[in-house]
Each structure stands twice: as C-alpha cells, then as structure tokens.
Backbone:
C-alpha cells in the first residue's frame, strides 16, 4: 500500500509511456488525502540536490507575475537572473498581465515642487525606500500636472525673466521626456493651467498600461485683456474612432 | 478500502474516472475532482475515463499525480459550490491551511507539480505553486535565485552581465 516514489526528474516534454521495472503495476487505488498528507514529509530526507528541469517560459511567467507590486526590487532582481527571464519580464504582454492581476499600482514615490535658490519651483521625485528612479532629480521645472504615470513640467527659462510656455512631458520611471512645441502667445498670461491626459479616445483606455501611449496636453490661459486661450496638444495623432 | 471521505456525496454514487500516470499506475477518482483540470474536463464531459479505459497522462508520474489528486479532492467540493460564495469562514480557513501545508514540500516535487498543474490546466494549483516559488525568491539576489532554483553556474559572460546590472540597479540590493 505504501509507496515512496520520488518525483520524477523527467523533462516535461516526455511523451512516451514507459514501464518502470521496479514499480510493478499497482491495482486501482484511491488516493487518500489524509494518508498522502501524512506521507508527504517522508521523501524530503536524504535527497541529494539534483538538476531540476528548466521551467518553461509560460511557467516562469506564471511565477513572476505573482511577485507583489509593492516589492519592485524582487521583479528587478528576477529580471537579472538570466537573459531568458529578462526577456520574459521585459515583454509588454507580461507587464500588461502583471498590472491586470494586481490592479492597484504601488506607490513608488511622489513629486514635490521645491523652490531653488532663486525661489523658482523645481519638481523633485521623492522615491519610496523600495525604489529608485533612473535619475532621482532633473532640473526640468515645476510640475504642473501628473496623470497615468506622466508628469507635465513647466520649464523655467534660464534667464528666468521672460515668460515662455516651455512644457515637457516626463515619465519619471523610464526618465523619458518629450518637449512640446513652444507656443507663441501674444502676451504673458495673467493666469494659466495645463493638464496631461492619456489620448485614449472615448474611454477606450483603462489607464493601466498607457504611460508609453500617445497623450494630450490641454492648456488654458487667461490674459489681462480677458481673452481666454485654449490649446490642445497631441503627442502623436491618435487613432480617432467615431 | 475505505469509502471516499471527500465529496460528502448526495447519493454516494459519484461518477468515477480512472487516470493512468506515466509509470502506468492507475488512480480512480471522482469525476468532479478530476474535472478541476481543464484538460481532463473536456475528456470527462465526452464520457472518457470511465470503466476500464482510463485516461493516460504520459507527462505526469505517479508520485506527482498522487499529489495533484490530493489537491483536487480537497478542492473539489468548494469548486462545485462555484468558488466560495457560500463557503463558511471555517471552510476557507481550512482550505488555506491545507494549501500552505500542501506546498511545504521538496523543491523537485514542487517543480513536478508546477509542470503538471500547467499541463493539466488546474488553475488553483498553478496559482498556488507559482505563488510559492514567487515567495521563495523573495529578498534573494539574482545569484541566490539561480542557486535556489537549481540553475547551472553562470558563464563568465553571464556573470559579467549580472555584475553590470547590479551596479546599475544597486538600490534593489540595499
């Protein structure tokens, strides 16, 4: 009745049905979960370490997608294990599955507009202890808005005297930045504000994985002569679906 | 032999199917338990596995299959109830305790299990074992992960690559 059979080290691809001479055909038996539970610790003893079969890509994917998002270092270290694992983790499909599984993204840091020596505000990315961005700080200007992983910065010109709409969209995680075309205005605005948005049209985007996708920047300026200017900038012409 | 302990059957005459491992051991289980496997479910729905036929599983050896079925038998009643909507907290706690103990096993068994769960498409088991391996690599450096999972030693080229990456992403090792 009692069998102590070590797990087979056979590779997964094996398809032949072979008889093992030392384990004669057993009569039909019903595995008893309690008996099995009692038995399970037994084979742990005196098993020398042996080469384990290489896990298939899909299996590695299943494992790594279960790394908790609040521990980004674990996924990064897994990506450094070997080239194959790196390829799996870097795949956009993996990223998508990872985000879909965990939904609530972890907080990797926050932005803080801090005045410099000349009292001009500059955005700093303050990371959590579990994460460091590729570059911690960039003197790129003040953060005006942030949404879906993108930050809209208003760059202050070097002379800091003239007003210019130099806007930059920054992804603090990848450190990619895209300068927007400079807008020519007839005067300095009395007040203004701007927002960066995902360009997913008509609610077609769930914003889980769109930080590399096209974006919109909406800019509203009010001038002293009561003229209101509204400008819409589009990073790339998104596919408009009616 | 003892009567089946699981299933708390409605009429005690649950349909049974026979599964045949790669080393030709035959296992008779309730169809409901075997049907946790998406792969087997189709065959069973088609009426396979009954009588003297049996369903051959050429990729799963008897030790692994026995372990897989232990999981299926334990989880079949909850699955039959459509997950856990009307399961009591005690039931769920019991399943959780079972799951935790279930994956507390030798690594080679764990590997065989993960392959079997994948091939047989047993979602809960796939998830359970994958989660266990994900937990095993927690807090480990790439080199330690390699050792834990039985990778061969890295080639000098791979080692140099790992060192370069570790320099670049030093924060992940603090």
Residues:
């Amino acid at each position: 009745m009692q069998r102590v059979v070590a797990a087979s080290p056979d590779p997964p691809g094996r398809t032949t049905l072979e008889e093992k001479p030392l384990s004669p055909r057993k009569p039909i038996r019903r595995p008893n979960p309690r008996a099995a539970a009692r038995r399970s610790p037994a084979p742990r003893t005196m098993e020398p370490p042996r080469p384990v079969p290489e896990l298939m890509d899909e299996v590695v994917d299943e494992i790594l997608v279960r790394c908790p998002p609040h521990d980004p270092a674990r996924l990064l270290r897994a990506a450094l294990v070997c080239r194959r694992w790196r390829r799996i983790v870097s795949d956009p499909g993996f990223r998508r599955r990872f985000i879909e599984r965990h939904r609530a993204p972890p907080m990797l840091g926050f932005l803080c507009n801090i005045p410099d020596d000349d009292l001009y505000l500059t955005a700093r990315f303050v990371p959590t202890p579990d994460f460091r961005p590729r570059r911690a700080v960039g003197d790129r200007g003040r953060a005006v808005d942030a949404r879906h992983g993108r930050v809209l910065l208003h760059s202050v010109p070097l002379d800091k005297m003239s007003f210019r709409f130099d806007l930059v969209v920054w992804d603090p995680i990848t450190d990619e930045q895209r300068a927007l075309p400079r807008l020519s205005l007839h005067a300095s605005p009395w007040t203004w504000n701007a927002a960066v948005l995902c360009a997913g049209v008509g609610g077609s985007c769930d914003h889980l994985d769109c930080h590399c996708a096209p974006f919109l920047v909406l800019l509203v300026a009010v001038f002293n002569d009561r003229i209101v200017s509204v400008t819409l900038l589009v990073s790339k012409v998104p596919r408009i679906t009616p | 032999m003892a009567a089946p302990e699981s299933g708390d059957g409605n009429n005690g005459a649950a349909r049974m199917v026979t599964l045949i491992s790669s080393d030709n051991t035959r296992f008779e289980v309730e169809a409901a338990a075997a049907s946790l496997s998406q792969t087997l479910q189709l065959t069973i729905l088609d009426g396979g596995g009954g009588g003297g036929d049996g369903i051959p599983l050429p990729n799963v050896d008897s030790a692994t299959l026995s372990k897989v079925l232990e999981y299926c038998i334990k989880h079949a009643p909850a699955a039959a109830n459509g997950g856990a909507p009307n399961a009591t907290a005690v039931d769920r706690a019991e399943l959780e305790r079972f799951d935790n103990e279930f994956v507390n096993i030798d690594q080679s068994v764990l590997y065989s299990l993960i392959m079997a769960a994948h091939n047989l498409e047993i979602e809960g088991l796939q998830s359970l074992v994958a989660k266990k391996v994900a937990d095993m690599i927690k807090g480990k450096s790439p080199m330690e992960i390699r050792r834990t999972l039985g990778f061969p030693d890295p080639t000098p080229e791979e080692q140099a690559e790992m060192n370069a990456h570790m320099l670049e992403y030093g924060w992940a090792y603090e």
